[in-house]
Specification:
Order of helices and strands: HHHHHHH
Number of strands: 0
Helix content: over 70%
Number of domains: 1
Oligomer: single chain
Strand content: under 5%
Shape: globular
Distance between the termini: 49 Å
Number of helices: 7
Radius of gyration: 17 Å
Structural class: mainly alpha
Largest sheet: none
């Protein structure tokens, strides 16, 4: 079931045409990563507190910052895909095939969920490339963080959970800065299309 959630979230990053859909996929991916991380947290003390803070930062505060921007600017909810729906589906299928082929690599052969995690990483990166709206970059970075958190939970469960807290803080800072930059750019380029930003080159 967890594998299906991760694969569905990854495919949604590419196929979605609305920022709200991609943000929902990020929340699903992030919640899955946090749920898997919670298996290895001591149920008292600093580990539980750091996990709770990470959950609030990654799954509440960061998405709320994106929702705030989408409510203020309608164009932020349109990802402005550079490819048609059929082409995006083909890209998702191609990335799924590429991720499946990595399971036969010696470094990843014995690791649980390696295909799904590689697929989520590839889809997060592809989202930044496939969509033309600046919000795709913000959601793509959040997706990459969710995939990396999932990889840490599955590949190295003994990692200290304070590191996850630090990563969550970094995600929050990057999200807030990215939303602030997008908000300011919206004043000059209301459609948030990355092609219109080429005028900023010196």
């Amino acid at each position: 079931m967890i594998e299906v959630l991760v694969a569905f979230a990854g495919a949604t990053f590419i196929v979605a045409s609305r920022t709200s859909q991609a943000l929902a996929a990020y929340v699903v991916l992030g919640a899955t990563a946090v749920a898997l991380s919670a298996r290895n947290v001591p149920h008292a003390g600093v580990g539980l507190l750091s996990l709770a803070i990470a959950v609030v930062l990654k799954l509440v505060v960061a998405p709320l910052a994106v929702v705030f921007l989408m409510r203020r600017h309608e164009t932020a909810n349109d990802l402005r895909s550079g490819l048609g729906l059929t082409a995006r589906i083909v890209v998702a299928i191609g990335l799924a095939a590429l991720a499946a082929s990595t399971a036969s690599m010696p470094a990843l052969s014995g690791l649980p969920m390696s295909r799904e995690i590689v697929f989520a990483v590839l889809c997060g990166a592809a989202m930044i490339v496939v969509h033309r709206n600046l919000m795709a970059g913000v959601i793509g970075l959040l997706a990459l963080d969710g995939a990396v958190t999932l990889a840490g939970a599955e590949f190295s469960p003994s990692i200290p959970h304070l590191l996850d807290l630090f990563a969550a803080f970094d995600v929050l800072v990057v999200t807030v800065i990215a939303v602030a930059i997008v908000r300011e750019l919206h004043r000059h380029y209301p459609n948030l299309d990355v092609r219109s930003l080429r005028k900023l080159r010196g």
